[in-house]
Amino acid sequence: MSLRQYAQEWLGSKSMAPGTAEAYERILRLHILPRLGRRTLAQVTAADVEDLYARWRQAGTALSTVQSRRIVLSGLFSHAVRHRRIPAHPVREAEKLDSPVLRVDERSLPSLAEITA
């Protein structure tokens, strides 16, 4: 089964708020399926997922947006593995996204009195 077909089946089977369903559908339609939609579920590899992440980042997509897209893709493949459509989960096997830790100058944080006020 193609990823495109499975994505439609998966979205139809999920119970979620209308706004969430719309966001998932949009992410799939605009950002995932154009690149991977013609492949079968079993053909998608961790390398394909890593390539997708790299393309998004090269296009200037914020890390938080890439993470949101990853959640959708991971949910789809989790469902496929759980329902024994595929034996492996390419999103889990893919190299983790860089998640830079930003240092915070604690002196710039408001005090408890300032927060309370």
Main beta sheet, described? none
CATH topology: DNA polymerase, domain 1
CATH architecture: Orthogonal Bundle
Summed up, the domain count is 1
Distance between the termini: 58 Å
Strand portion: under 5%
Any idea what the CATH superfamily is called?
Tyrosine recombinase, N-terminal domain
Bin the helical content: 55-70%
H and E string:
HHHHHH
Q: Give the strand tally.
A: 0
Label the structural class: mainly alpha
Q: Averaging pLDDT over every residue, what do you get?
A: 92
Q: Which term fits the overall shape?
A: elongated
Q: Which ranges are low-confidence, i.e. pLDDT below 50, for 5 or more consecutive residues?
A: none
Q: What value does the Rg take, in angstroms? A: 18 Å
> DSSP helix count?
6
CATH class descriptor = Mainly Alpha
